[in-house]
Amino acid sequence: MTTTVTTTDNTTFTVTMDGRLDTAASQQCLEDLKTVLETPGANITVDCTDLEYISSSGLRIFLTLYKSAFATKGSLRVTNLNPDVRNIFNITGFSKRFGIE
After folding, report:
1. C-alpha–C-alpha distance, residues 72 and 39, integer Å
2. Number of domains comprising the chain
3. CATH classification at residue 65
4. Would you say 13 and 5 are in contact if contact means Cβ atoms under 8 Å apart?
5. What's the pLDDT tens digit per position in 32-63?
6. pLDDT digits (tens, 9 = 90+) for 71-95
7. What span, in angstroms and rounded, lies between the C-alpha atoms of 19 and 58?
8. Which 8-state DSSP code applies to residue 85?
9. Which burial class, exposed, middle or buried, applies to 77 when counting CB atoms under 10 A from its CB (0-12, 13-18, 19+)?
10. Spatial distance between the Cα atoms of 97 and 69, rounded to a whole number of angstroms
11. Label partner for 21 (CA 20 to 30 A): which of 12, 29, 30, 56?
């Protein structure tokens, strides 16, 4: 699992996830997202084009991003979910919580 964070200004972030976001990868992913999570008013776009799989630990990371962004008047968008990952988001109700494109 690879998590890449790019920024266009102090509060706008694009997070690209590549691989399997499972229990083994979740701790490193949280470390990679530390700057994003610590930025008040962060506007976050998570590009999931290459996200192959997500476990409950991975879903917890999305929930953490959501809570962090909205607690400080930021935003979270999730883009390019493959059908399997989108199905997990639908089953868990996450697709109603996040802006999914």
Report:
1. 9
2. 1
3. 3.30.750.24
4. yes
5. 999 999 999 999 999 999 999 999 999 999 99
6. 999 999 999 999 999 999 999 999 9
7. 11
8. H
9. middle
10. 13
11. 12
Q: Sign (positive/negative) of CA torsion 47, 53, 56, 57? A: negative
53/46 Cα distance (integer angstroms):
15
Q: Provide the residue type at 78 as one letter.
A: V
- CB neighbour list of residue 81: distance below 8 Å, 6 or more residues apart: 48, 51, 89, 100
Q: Which two tokens stand for residue 101?
A: 């494109």
- Indicate the pTM of the whole model: 0.94
Q: For the beta carbon of residue 72, count every other beta carbon within 10 angstroms.
A: 12
Tokens of 96: 């109603």
Q: Which domain holds residue 21?
A: 2-100
